[in-house]
Amino acid sequence: MDASLPGRIDAALRQVLDPEIGRNLVDLGLIYGVEVADDAAVHIVMTTTTRGCPLSGFLKEAVATTVAAVGGVGSVDVALTWDPPWTPAMSAPF
Q1: Mind listing the pLDDT tens digit for each residue in 51-78?
Q2: In what order do the strands lie in the sheet with 31-36?
Q3: Which of 12, 18, 39, 43 is paired with 31 by a 20 to 30 Å CA distance?
Q4: To 10 degrees, what angle do helices 5-13 and 56-68 make?
């Protein structure tokens, strides 16, 4: 695996904005984890601001598409979770 891949994935994820809030998902604290396997398969665990968020599917697809476009990524799996539930305290300061 290319050692720069995790950083490039992080940079790509920072381009995915929550359309209601206008901030990227990383700074909002919505990305709970990113794992990159030796074969460049990427597994992302994320959440949304609320369990019933109508944009859940859109955000999950945006994350998958954006990360898949990063050079060197093999495959992308995105899992949604609500444990722990997101709170505004998880966001980076404005």
Answers
A1: 999 999 999 999 999 999 999 999 999 9
A2: 31-36, 41-46, 75-80
A3: 39
A4: 140
